[in-house]
Design goal:
Largest sheet: 5 strands, mixed
Strand content: 15-25%
CATH topology of one domain: Collagenase (Catalytic Domain)
Radius of gyration: 44 Å
Mean pLDDT: 79
CATH class of one domain: Alpha Beta
CATH superfamily of one domain: Collagenase (Catalytic Domain)
Low-confidence stretches: 1-15, 53-100
Strand order of the largest sheet: 7-6-8-10-9
CATH architecture of one domain: 3-Layer(aba) Sandwich
Number of helices: 6
Distance between the termini: 144 Å
Order of helices and strands: HEEEEHHEEHEEEEHHE
Helix content: 25-40%
């Protein structure tokens, strides 16, 4: 009798793994279809939400929407002293411009806005709260006559040129005032004269006159050739003194800061940043008093 040997699977053998080519191909074909179906479902859901939001907005009462502010029923009040008339208060003219008058409150506001970096407040203290300046003279320059001091001891023919240079320096500092130099003093708005020395301890003097509205209308400058003690001034000193006096002529006054040309005893030979800032502010303001 033969023994029958029953064969059984070998469970220890590794199983066949992975997908067939056909299965992979089928999956590649089906995936875009599922993506398209998902995208259609998303779009339909989004459109449905937008339609519901629009319907809700359409049913909202009108009074729930923000309303614009009502327009004013009356015109705003005019600024103080806006009329085209010249007013006076306490004997001092209110600041005026070509367009009309500017009240002292408005002038104080403008001074405060521009005062930083200037010595405008020192000028106001010296001038009893008043600001004086020339009208704009760009197209019609101020006429300046510079005298010849050749008959005086210590005279140098270069001195008139140094004086003219001082005027031009201020003109280039941003002032709306230009200068032209005339041959006859009778034709001049400003005259510059010379003395050998002053009796008091000064080396220059400026006088100007103004009208009731604080506009400067004329002026004169006198320059010394020597210190009061008799020491002769050189060309550089003459230029510095002329710069100082032309500053006065334009409406500036003294400042305590010795780095400025407008300090009471001149120690520098050119304009400082504060000198330029102050003259620009002065000529950006209308002349007049800031007193109430």
């Amino acid at each position: 009798m033969k023994n029958r040997v029953r064969e059984r699977p070998d469970f220890d053998a590794p199983k066949k793994s992975g997908l067939s080519f056909r299965e992979i191909f089928a999956i590649v074909l089906v995936l875009p279809l599922f993506g398209f179906i998902g995208w259609q479902f998303y779009e339909q859901n989004r459109e449905s939400q937008e339609e519901r939001a629009a319907a809700a907005a359409a049913s909202r009462p009108i009074q729930d929407l923000p309303r614009p502010a009502p327009a004013p029923t009356t015109a705003p009040a005019p600024l103080p002293n806006e009329a085209n008339t010249i007013a006076t208060a306490g004997g001092n003219a209110v600041a005026t411009t070509a367009e009309g008058s500017v009240g002292s409150n408005e002038l104080r506001r403008r001074v405060a806005l521009g005062a930083r970096g200037t010595y405008i407040n020192e000028i106001l203290l010296t001038r009893d709260s008043g600001l004086a300046r020339w009208p704009e003279r760009v197209l019609n320059p101020l006429r300046v006559w510079v005298a010849n001091g050749s008959s005086l001891s210590g005279w140098d023919p270069k001195y008139p040129d140094r004086v003219r240079a001082a005027f031009e320096t201020w003109s280039l500092a941003g002032v709306p005032v230009k200068f032209t130099f005339v041959r006859d003093s009778a034709d001049a708005d400003v005259v510059v004269q010379w003395v050998e020395k002053f009796d008091s301890p000064i080396t220059g003097r400026t006088l100007w006159s103004r009208d009731r509205n604080w506009w400067i209308v004329s002026g004169s400058i006198t320059l010394a050739l020597h210190h009061t003690t008799g020491e002769e001034l050189d060309e550089r000193a003459i230029n510095a003194i002329a710069l100082h006096e032309v500053g006065h002529l334009l409406g500036l006054d003294h400042t305590a800061d010795t780095t400025n040309i407008m300090t009471s005893r001149v120690r520098v030979h050119e304009l400082s940043g504060s000198d330029r800032a102050t003259i620009r502010l002065l000529y950006a303001l209308p002349p007049g008093s800031i007193k109430n």
